[in-house]
Automatic annotation (TrEMBL):
Functional summary from the UniProt entry: Required for nicotinamide riboside transport across the inner membrane.
Organism superkingdom: Bacteria
Location(s), subcellular: Cell membrane
Pfam families tied to this protein: NMN_transporter
NCBIfam families recorded: NMN_trans_PnuC
Record family assignment: Belongs to the nicotinamide ribonucleoside (NR) uptake permease (TC 4.B.1) family.
The entry's keywords: Cell membrane, Membrane, Transmembrane, Transmembrane helix, Transport
Membrane topology of the entry: Multi-pass membrane protein
Listed name of the protein: Nicotinamide riboside transporter PnuC
Main location: membrane
Positions of transmembrane segments: 20-39, 46-65, 71-88, 109-127, 133-153, 181-200
Length: 220
């Protein structure tokens, strides 16, 4: 009987230690993810460095709690961090970075329909062929986040609308899996994406004004 209680105590001690390690790594990932959004709001290229390290940590964390698509999503984020850095520094016609742009409602409707269909197909596969938790929600947040990250790299203004919905759904996913620090982070995101939208919109208007002045008839 004493061996049973000793084994049980050791199991609790080991589980507690693992939980502490998980929380510590999650805290680092949260801080870097928060830094990413702040830098992105300001249009700073440092957002991509913060994103790369944060997503590397999250790739492992999500895999350990069986959010498979979220884990794969973060592998994609790591690649997009490299692509986004290149676009913001070397993209555009003059290879000096891209400016903020706005896409039409029809373009976004097409994006939503296509991405939604892909998400349903992947969610069905995950529900029937894998051990993934909440497969349809996991697939939906993943597919739309994949698409929206591309919009960020291209500096499409409306990316902030997509992130608001994605973050709201993600809060439920993370709470259900006990990733409370990440859930709190995404609550902060909901407010920050609103500010991000207005900051980008103001910058886009400034760009358009500057461009109009550069090409005004009075210019030599």
């Amino acid at each position: 009987m004493s061996e049973f209680w000793l084994t049980l105590a050791n199991s609790f001690t080991r589980a507690f230690g693992e939980a502490q390690a998980l929380t510590a790594w999650e805290a680092v990932a949260v801080l870097l993810a928060l830094a990413y959004l702040i830098f992105a709001m300001k249009g700073s290229i440092w957002c991509w460095a913060a994103a790369f390290v944060s997503t590397a940590i999250y790739t492992i964390l999500f895999w350990n709690v069986s959010l498979l698509m979220e884990s794969l999503l973060n592998v994609y984020y790591m690649a997009m961090a490299v692509y986004g850095y290149w676009m913001w520094t070397r993209g555009g016609k003059d290879h000096d970075g891209v400016n903020i742009v706005s896409w039409s409602a029809m373009t976004h409707l097409k994006i939503i329909v296509v991405t939604g269909i892909i998400a349903l197909a992947i969610g069905h596969f995950m529900a029937t062929q894998t051990h993934a938790s909440l497969p349809y929600l996991d697939a939906a947040t993943t597919c739309f986040a994949v698409m929206t990250t591309y919009l960020v790299a291209k500096k499409v203004l409306e990316n902030w609308f997509y992130w608001f919905v994605i973050d709201a759904v993600s809060i439920y996913l993370y709470v259900s899996k006990g990733l409370m620090l990440t859930a709190v982070l995404f609550v902060l995101y909901l407010g920050m994406v609103v500010f991000g939208y207005y900051m980008w919109r103001n910058k886009m208007e400034d760009q358009q004004t500057l461009s109009a002045n550069d090409f005004s008839p009075g210019k030599a």
